Amino acid sequence: MKKYMLLFRGQEGVDASKDALYERIQMHINWIEKLGDQHIDSQRLEEHGAHILNFNTVETDGAFIEAKEIILGYTIVAAINLDEAIFLAKTCPLLNYFEIMVRPVVS
To answer: Which DSSP symbol is given to 46?
Structure first.
């Protein structure tokens, strides 16, 4: 089995209230439980950070400029191949709220 990182990327117009966030966290936890041993790790990322464009340009202003550019978190799964990792990503209920990018992790 190989490791694949699922990156959750923001979409415009997603409800950002505390209640909506709590609901999505619960949905994610339930999905992780269904993944069983194929789930390796998941973390939500804080809103603040830095976007380094080059040696001279670093953007650090709060939540990033456009919500659609924010990487909200990640999940690492174990899958036989990219097709299976994509299948697992498509079973994630957060796909209703966010884009999910699937990338193989180099071992």
So the answer is: P
Question: For residue 53, is it left (φ>0), alpha (ψ between -120 and 50) or beta?
Answer: alpha
SS3 10: coil
**pTM for the model:** 0.84
Which CA distances in Å does 14 have to 8, 29, 95?
13, 19, 12
Q: Which domains does the chain possess?
A: 2-104 (3.30.70.1060)
What pairs with residue 3 in β-bridges? Answer: 78
Tokens of 17: 């209230």
pLDDT digits (tens, 9 = 90+) for 8-55: 988 777 887 889 989 999 999 999 999 999 999 999 888 777 778 888
CA–CA distance, 9 with 6 (Å, rounded to integer): 10
Helix (H, G, I), strand (E, B) or coil at 72: strand
CA atoms within 13 A on the CB side of 52: 3
Dihedrals φ, ψ of 97, to 5°?
-120, -25
